[in-house]
Amino acid sequence: MRRLFLLIYQYRAFFTFILLEIIAFWLVIGTSTFHNAAFFNTSNNIVASIFGLRQGVYQYFNLANENDNLAKENAFLRDLIYQKQIAVLSADSSLMSSTDTAVQYNYIPAKVINNSTQKINNYLTIDKGSRDGLEPGMGAISSFGVVGVVKTVSNNYATVYSLLHGDIQVSTMLSRLGVFGTTKWDGLDPLYANLLYIPRHVELQVGDSITTSGYNAIFPEGIPIGQIKEFSIEENETFYNIVVELSSDFQSLSHVYLIQNYFRQEKDSVELLNE
Amino acid sequence: MNSRSIIYNFLVFVIYIMLQVFLFDNMVLFGTAFCFIYIGFILLLPFEISTVVLVLLGFITGFSIDIFYSSLGVNAASATLIAYLRPFWLSTITPSTGYEDVRIPALKVMGFGWFITYALPLIFLHHLSLFFIEAGELYHFWLIIKKTFFSSLFTFAMLVIGQNLFYNRDRLT
């Protein structure tokens, strides 16, 4: 026994090294299982308030850009109101269903205080947390399209998986054709993602817009994701290789909306019954 | 190591972490060159420090960065690796005059040529392991090699500039 201790003491640096490496790799592999470990994360209050300070300085340099984006969003919303008015005037029965969806979802605005786009797995930190009704698994969108999914929340802050993250896949619909697929980022360019599982028989066009499908409870149907930039198919393959230009500009995100789905639990429990 | 130099080194630690988080987090050149200035803290610790403490400090430094980067364990693993290898590498490249009257393996006291042989391989190894662990697969192999190469040069350049600006000679010997 004494000899064993002597041995350990003699090689103590090596053993410390091995032990720490094991801990580090355990953390790397286990990160996805530490969903609620908000402490060692950017949603940690101390870390997030440091990011908040930094953002307080940065945002002044971005004001012009920010105004542009808000103006664009205003124009889009005005357009929506105009369309609604037309629908009311013509007393369309489809109005019933659209008021239903209005009650189903609630949008919580939040400010982005930290954001990365250059890594292989990217995250955002936002300044809203469980106190504002956020939960892990909620969808996040910008004025222009899908942004990501909430990973962890603390009282006042939350960490969000960016769409630019290897583990995030978004159920997608080709609006023009009503065909379903999956959008996934390939880890290279923050402006482009891939659209997967679109079968050979579909006749695609460059510029086709793709939106969320509404098949999962995270995003409502019809939130823009992007536009098809180019596509190709190999002789013996079933699915197209499609490159999508993302509609959200991840490099200049400053505000996002979190989607609170009041029916989520209901939908999930109904789907559980089927299994 | 007296309590004064412990406090001094703690402040240096905080400065490196803040530099990394505030300044270099968003400073990515051409989408491939990242700067991990924080490993300068490990590379520029005094010679006298024991390997066990060095390895622990490496882990703590990497772990602190991981908290800010939402990449739990990735920086910790790489920083621990180079902290462990540092003493071996230092003894391998001992100059003929030895390390007498020098406290810190820094650019100004050891010379540029020596500092390249000391820092660049360790930086390269750190970045290589970091990018591979971050990717978690070999799918992006060439991208990782490219990123490692340019990031190493970027980090090294920043370390050289930083030492010329902020490390004064009296502290080093």
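qc> Chain B has eight helices and no strands.
qc> done
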